[in-house]
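Readers outside the structure-tokenisation community will struggle with the description of the input data as it stands. Showing the layout once, in full, would remove most of the difficulty. For illustration, here is how one protein appears when written out as sequence plus structure tokens:
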Amino acid sequence: MSSPGTPASERRWRRWEVIAAIVAAVTALIGLGFLSYQSQQSAQALNASKHTEQVQYNLQIMERTDDTLLAISRDKSCVTYVWGPKLAVRPKEGSTAMECGDALIDELSMAMKALYCLPGFSSNGNDWTEYVKFQLKNSPNLVRRIRDKPDWWPEVAPFAGVQQPKTDCG
């Protein structure tokens, strides 16, 4: 046996140091590979989560719009205001008819805002754009309301012929 400090023992220790360094390097590479895999999986999960949130948002707007349309259909003053001919006398602020119309405009506005602010939501753009056009084509009173208060609903104001679309998400 060689005693410590002899050339043979130093070679043995160097051999073990090299082996340990190789094992450490391989372990580090495996760790980096695993970290890369985890990062990819996290990115995919984040994308799926964003897509799911945007689908849920679309569904929520649709459900709220359906609820509002049902509420409008149950009240004659709302039906007359929302889908009737242009009224000579506007309903009073805070009246049921005005609230029904404002609620529908709010939901249309939020759908259009989502088109500008949620990247994945833009795939619904044609549907919501056509729906806004349809509703306003059939409601001169809502068009007049938007024209009176374009700052309240900047996302749908262009459909009422008022101003450029608001595309910021602030």
The helical segments are 7-73, 76-83, 96-117, 125-137, 140-148. The two ends are 78 Å apart (CA to CA).
